[in-house]
Amino acid sequence: KHSTLKLTDLKLADGTVSIDAEERGNQWQIQINAKAVDSALIQKLFQPANFELKGGRINFELNASGSHALIEDFTLTTELNGLTVQTRDGRFATEKVTLESKLEAQNNKDLWQWQSHSLFKGGALYIEPLYLEADGQSMILDAQGNWNGMNKRAEIQSVSYKQGTALALSGSAIVQYEKK
Predict the structure, then answer these.
(1) Were 13 and a residue from 27, 38, 77, 139 both cysteine, which residue would form a disulfide, CB within 3.0 to 4.6 Å?
(2) How many Cβ atoms are within 10 Å of 53's Cβ, its own excluded?
(3) In the predicted model, is pLDDT for residue 154 greater than 70?
(4) pLDDT for the residue 25
(5) d(CA 100, CA 82)
(6) What phi and psi, each to the nearest 5 degrees, are found at residue 97?
(7) What are the pLDDT digits (tens) for 37-64?
(8) What's 101's DSSP letter?
C-alpha cells in the first residue's frame, strides 16, 4: 500500500501553507510548511483560546514520521517575526518578539528524547515573574532532555542560556507535574 498527498500554496491568514504526506505500508511521514501567516488572523482558528494573538507573522516547518498511529520523531522549526501574544491570565506575554527556534524529538517506547535551540533576536518576553528584553543583544537558549507523559515527568538533562556576552547560565532539572 502506497499513498501520497501534496497540497501547495494554500492560502491561510494572509500567508501560504504547503503539505506533503506519504504512507508506505505502516510507515508514514508528513511535512507542513507555513510562510508569513498573520498571527492575529490565525487567532480565529483557536476559539475559545487561553491566549490572544495580537500581531506578528509566523513561519514554520514541521517534519514528522511514524508507524500506524504513533509519532516516532518530529522536527519543528519556527520563525516568529514581531509576535505579540498574551495568555488570558496574564502570566505569559510577548511583545514584538523576533525568534528562531528548532525542536527535535524522538519517541522511544513512550519516552520522548528532545533537544531544542532558540535564538531570541528582538522584542520582549514575560513569563511570570521573569521579564526579558532583547535590547540589541541576542539571547540563546539550548536544552535537551526526556519527557514521559505516563509518569508526568520531564527531565531537563542540560539547559544553557546566554545573553550576549553579559550573562551565561547552565543547569539541569527534573520537573514533576500533574494535569489539571
Answers:
(1) 38
(2) 22
(3) yes
(4) 92
(5) 12
(6) -75, 135
(7) 999 888 887 777 888 999 999 999 999 9
(8) E
Dist CA 6 CA 9 (whole Å): 10
Q: Let me know if 71 is exposed, middle or buried by CB neighbors in 10 A (0-12, 13-18, 19+).
A: middle
Whether the pTM exceeds 0.90: the reply is no
Q: Which of 124, 57, 121, 116 is nearest to 86 (CA)?
A: 124
C-beta neighbour count of 26 within 10 angstroms: 11
Q: Which helix (H) or strand (E) holds 160?
A: strand 153-163
39 vs 22: CA distance, rounded Å: 29
Q: Which residue has the cell 522549526?
A: 77
Check: CB of residue 138 under 8 Å from CB of residue 118.
Answer: no
Produce one character per residue of 127-153: b if its CB has 16 or more CB atoms within 10 Å, e if not. Answer: eeeeebebeeeebebebbbbbeeeeee
Phi, psi at 40, each rounded to 5°: -65, -35
Contacts of 82 (CB under 8 A, 6+ apart): 55, 56, 57, 96, 97, 98, 123
* C-alpha grid cell, residue 4: 501520497
- The mean pLDDT of 167-173, rounded to a whole number, is 92
